[in-house]
Amino acid sequence: QVQLVESGGGLVQAGGSLRLSCAASGLTFSSYRMGWFRQAPGKEREFVAAINWSGVSTYYADSVKGRFTISRDNAKNTVYLQVNSLKPEDTAIYYCAASARAVPALTTTRLSGYDSWGQGTQVTVSS
Prior knowledge:
With 127 residues, this protein is mostly beta strands. The protein is built from no helices and 11 strands. A hairpin with a 4-residue loop joins β7 (68-73) and β8 (78-83).
């Protein structure tokens, strides 16, 4: 059974940074594509970033390009999201997601491209 546990969220001022982590278990981590999504109050869950099994290929939402960086450590079964230059509109619950399926690149940015989800970690950015 795949388990994903996010951590690292918190309250930060605008312009600040956080490092989110997602620890995975119950899977062959190096075979899985990993993603980060977020959901703000009253809004739908949206794509933030994704990384392929090797870490060579990464994908980002336009709204976070240049500010967020996704990375992974296959030896630690962990995926990270470094979030810099935070804005109040980045306030949301951030979710980690995983899938071993091979999908087209566009599907990598969609909820349907993932099979397992974590419980989320709250990021709140004050102005």
